[in-house]
Amino acid sequence: MNRFNVGVFAAACALPLFVGAEGQKPRKADARPNVVLIYADDLGYGDLSCYGARNVATPNVDSLAANGLRFTQAHAVASTSTPSRYSLLTGEYPFRRRGTDVAAGDAAMIIAPGQYTVADVFKEAGYRTAAFGKWHLGLGAVSGAQDWNAPIEPALDDIGFDYSYIMAATADRVPCVFIENGRVANYDASAPIYVSYRQNFEGEPTGRNNPELLYNLKHSHGHDMSIVNGIGRIGYMKGGGKALWKDENIADSITAHAVDFIKKSGEEPFFIYFATNDVHVPRFPHERFRGVTGMGHRGDAIAQFDWCVGQIVAALKERGVLENTLLIVSSDNGAVVDDGYADRAEELLNGHDPMGGLRGGKYSTFEAGTRVPFIVHWPAQIKSAAVCDALVSQIDFLDVMAVVAGHKDGSRLSPDGSPAEAEVWLGRSNKSRPFTVGMAANHTLSLCTPEWKYIEPKGGPKMVPWGPKIETGYSTEPQLFKMVHGDFDETVNVAGENADALSALQRMLAEIRAAADR
Ligand code: NG6
Ligand code: CA
User: How many domains would you assign to the chain?
Assistant: First the structure.
């Protein structure tokens, strides 16, 4: 296994002192920064004001962009959550591994214990590591067989996280409880928890049969199984009692836990994976954000997301470590407007375009599926703010983080990432990645180069069939689009006139795919 040894670089570090906030012990610091990834859910390319959003102000994210790097051609690896997150944390393309599609809430751990993750990278480098918020990569050894009333194993401590406070899957999937270090947080012994993705539990209401109980949000498609907090979910659960989350408090809860982790951080640097529920469905922001954007819950959830960013930044500042903290803000996939709840997101857009002018959206193989906001902020290293148009991909997260954590020999630690990309992520180069690969919901792959975007022929419905009004981009014909003035023109398929480019890209994709067998 490709691992590296902390001793090699930890010993080589100089030890200046970073002075903490008043009354706090100064933290011995070395060249290694803290790292915080703020990973939004379904936040579109056009959803932040620094990316041109209308009707919603995101001053906290904007300020990171204004003092750091804002990327315009950054890609998540897939246009849905589980495969995208799998790739981000492991540096392996999701098509190399079965079982990386959108996971149920009772899925077993998708990243096997023993598999190398970015959390391992940091742990080996002497960091404290923590995950907060949306997980969606499974827990436990066997799907559907977890006992939610006992410690669940394996869990995140088996893949490199010292501490975790997470939702097992998504807010629209049961179980609707937080899991802290492998156990249900605030566990209520008087209300044991049972979960099934097959059948309901006798006597339990569902959104389908008891719509009168949906007092907080009604569904527009799907989401009509168990009801928790007046909202229908995917999957069935029983029990939970006082451990059940209230959707309006999810952002506060994960933020408070992350802030607490920062406050209690000691001498060693830390890595935080802060994965928000915002702006995934069910969108149900805290009442203090209600109405601030005029766009209903979806817009207000963006404002809530921005508030979370502000709280994390404030905590870093207070701890005296903002200067030497590498903060990255991005999203797991592109935007969707109606994703299954009647939250009026569509009718209240008022001219806001979550896709930022790109074609497609979440689930899609077109640009708005995987092109996402991507902001890098690290005052100690990134001295001049810039907008960067280089093609970058989240597949490189593990390897770039290894460089940040001190891995110096230039070797690649993940199956598919590249440590060379650290130069671009940290603002020292503006060179595009030679290619990025994206995967749509039906596994159609696309390949972008600085000049072309190729979408492999696979076929499938033109529109996402189950509700969201999104073009999939699926076709039985090969599609080739040209980069024109800094953007892929996905309106004109030029495959017919560019046979050489087409076959070169097809060969390239075939080689990338075949590397799975190495
Ligand atoms: C879909 C859900 C959608 C969302 C998505 C996963 C229905 C009808 N739709 O199946 O609401 O949960 O899965 O989103 O159930 S993701 O961002 O986590 O990939
Ligand atoms: Ca998502």
Answer: 2
